Amino acid sequence: MVVLVVAGVVPRASSGAVAPRWPYAESLCVERPRTAAPAGFGEARTFGGDEHTNITGVGFERRGDQTVAVSTGQDGTLRAWALPGLTPVGTPQRGGKIVREAEDTRTLNGRMVRVVASDELKVVDVATGRQAAPVVYLGEDNGVRAMVLFTLGGRLTAAVNDNGGDENEPGPDRVTLWDLASGRKAGRIDGDFSTVRKATINGRTVLLTVNLGTDRYDLGTAYPPRGTISLWDPATRKEIARLPGNPPPVPADQYTRLVYDQVHLAVGDLDGRPVALSGGGDNALRLWDLTTATQLAATTPIGHIDEIVSFTVAERDGRGILVSGSADGTLMVWDLTTLQRLEVLHDRPLTLKYPLFTDIPGMEPLITTWDSGLRYWELDPGGKLEPVLAGLGVGPILSFHGRPAHLGEESGRGRLRDLATRTPIGAPIPITGEQPVTRAIVTRLADQDVVIDVRNRIRIWDLYTGRRLGTIPDVRSPGHREARPAVAQARCTTLVLSAAGPIVRIWDLRTGRELPPLTGHTGTISHIRTGLIGDRPIAVTTSEDGTARAWNLTDTTPIGPPLTVGRRYGIIELTHLNGRTLLIRAGRDERIRMWDLGGR
């Protein structure tokens, strides 16, 4: 028996057989790409243009002689809107807040008093600072969502929407009415609310609440649906009207973010009539006529209104397109050149959740979904989803010598098959361990098709014989669950890139030696992508530090300064269009952004 050890690579030996030779020995190689490494990159472009994401506050302001609506969003902007059509006014401002304090100033018994709600409801004489009415205990560590003052039966009354403190957690957040002069409870509006406002309609005071939709199984009933807005008569505590508000776009047990609970509400006056403005997690503003309980105007979001969980770049009728999928099941098609939305695919199966895309040259995007099992779909020329590939098991779909193929698991081994004919390609690969094909990669090494298995070591298999060519030990790459290993052709060899905390380790499959790592991130690596800028091999990595970095793989040096992608990113991909290399990212901020990395 002959045991061969070449530059740290340990091939497998078997009794009675000579251990296989390594594809080729270490040799000097100097790559001189024609494309220069760029010094930096421009600003990102946003698909669909600029708009609010997840509205965090709404209000009315006087600007000159006009009343305008204002809103803030999770995107960090404050925007103004002309009334009544809700058309944009001016340019968005970075930053800005719409603050509503849980206090107000009114006249009580002929004195100006300040009313403050926290753990206690206090009435303080503005002139002297002394207590002007009995203190009402609301609860220890009480959270006050909102408070409004009004006159009920000729007496100054506070309507407080709070959580009741530790004594009422968990529990519904009702609206309680308090007679301020006596400190006694004047009534309660039963429900679960996120805020309370007041308006005057036809001369009488009306209270408005945003409903959280909590089920009351103990009473055999339910509160008003989540996201709706109720109008209440404070004297009778009865609901007199209901606005659809900003409800979530999917059933309450399926939405993915608590922000859908946070519908924001403001009340104002427009040409002498009471109006309300609402906005929330569906990224839309709505203006309501409170007298008729009808909608006057609304903005229409351009892009997704929930987390983007997948996208792929494809081609349709000679046009580059991007198909994106949201956690709520929405699918959108975008023009890759203009970045404008082409269509929204509404006719999806009801079970289509968290769609994942596979991009194979010459094919329409394949969409993978999990419901009762693994299912595959294809977009037909009309944009409808058609089921395909019935019975195909778990495993990546990839392009193999220009043809789509599937690397699946059969009898505990990896097996590559032609996707169209289902005929096997090569031999079974004895990959073992949990989910054996999830960290397997089909690649080329020394003009030979191989499969590599990246775990605590890298094992290299001949695709056609199933024979193990070698093992690189002590890889140990505890990366982020999304940071799957990647391969690249650089330095006249095949490189394997694998995450290890905030760095990316690199191995030369020709020799088995580890090359200088990619260092510079300060957070755990979350994605690794490889590609080309012109003919220069590159890698792009993202990290939990909120940045993306591009790397020159000919010498493992950084290219340009880091790109700020934020901590709320989700997925990144590299693609090419008209000779340019594009970095595209999307995620929890519901937007798709693209950087031009250069090329030609």
Short structural description:
By secondary structure, the chain is mainly β.
Report on the architecture of this protein.
The protein is mostly beta strands. Among the domains are: 95-243, Methylamine Dehydrogenase, Chain H; 261-356, Thrombin, subunit H (Beta Barrel), CATH 2.40.10; 396-475. The chain has no helices and 50 strands. The strands form 13 sheets. A 4-stranded antiparallel sheet has the order 1-50-49-48, with no helix packed on it. Strands 2-3-4-5 form a 4-stranded antiparallel sheet, with no helix packed on it. A hairpin with a 2-residue loop joins strand 32 and strand 33 (403-410). The protein is elongated, with a radius of gyration of 31 Å. It starts with 44 loop residues before the first strand and ends with a strand. Mean pLDDT is 84; it is low at 1-21 and 249-260. WD repeats lie at residues 277-298, 301-344. InterPro entries: Quino_amine_DH_bsu, WD40/YVTN_repeat-like_dom_sf, WD40_PAC1, WD40_repeat_CS, WD40_repeat_dom_sf, WD40_rpt. Pfam families: WD40. Keywords: Repeat, WD repeat.
Topology, please?
Layout: E1 45-46, E2 55-63, E3 66-73, E4 77-82, E5 87-94, E6 103-108, E7 111-117, E8 120-125, E9 136-137, E10 144-152, E11 155-162, E12 175-179, E13 184-189, E14 193-201, E15 204-211, E16 215-216, E17 221-222, E18 229-233, E19 238-243, E20 264-270, E21 273-279, E22 285-289, E23 294-298, E24 308-316, E25 319-326, E26 331-335, E27 341-345, E28 356-358, E29 366-370, E30 374-379, E31 385-388, E32 397-400, E33 403-410, E34 413-418, E35 424-429, E36 440-444, E37 449-454, E38 458-462, E39 468-472, E40 486-490, E41 493-500, E42 503-508, E43 514-518, E44 525-533, E45 536-543, E46 547-552, E47 557-564, E48 569-577, E49 580-587, E50 592-599
Antiparallel strand pairs: 1-50, 2-3, 3-4, 4-5, 6-7, 7-8, 8-9, 10-11, 11-12, 12-13, 14-15, 15-18, 16-17, 18-19, 20-21, 21-22, 22-23, 24-25, 25-26, 26-27, 28-29, 29-30, 30-31, 32-33, 33-34, 34-35, 36-37, 37-38, 38-39, 40-41, 41-42, 42-43, 44-45, 45-46, 46-47, 48-49, 49-50
WD repeats: 277-298, 301-344
InterPro entries: Quino_amine_DH_bsu, WD40/YVTN_repeat-like_dom_sf, WD40_PAC1, WD40_repeat_CS, WD40_repeat_dom_sf, WD40_rpt
Pfam family, one: WD40
